[in-house]
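INFO batch 0412 | record 1 of 1 | parsing
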Amino acid sequence: MNHLEIFTTIHTFIFDVDGVMTNNEVMITESGELLRKMSVRDGLAMRIAIDKGYRIAVITGGRSEGVKKRLEALGIKDIYSGISNKLEAFDEYVEKYELDPVGILYMGDDLPDYPVLRRVGLATCPKNSAPELFPIVNYVSPYNGGEGCVRDVIEKVLRLQGKWSEE
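INFO prediction complete | emitting tokens
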């Protein structure tokens, strides 16, 4: 099966945050707060997918309350933050909803994502990911993290399943 055919089987999206939803950089304020920049277009795509009935979860090592509030505002309910073992969180999520990993798209950008990428039906990453991921993913987005890679994979899934609309 080629990667376009695999996109037609997806029912669930799981994303990392730093390096996927953000550009993998943090700005540090004088008080020590870490600031991240997220793509509004990625956010819109996540909102559309949720509205169309897709599941979206986030598994991140970060602990940002601001990021959590942003994701909750988009309608994402399953947010695993401060996670050191992403595979354990993934297994918990899959078990909780009795999901078949074959229908899950995961997007990660670095070594902590490697074990989950090996378990899903569609393993994806942004184009500026750690090079160790390229041999194991099915699809590399032409967009960098924080610059539309989330929108890219969601839009592909929805278009190939006839659920994307410009209206």
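INFO post-check: The beta strands are 12-15, 27-28, 34-35, 55-59, 78-80, 104-107, 122-125, 139-140.
INFO record closed
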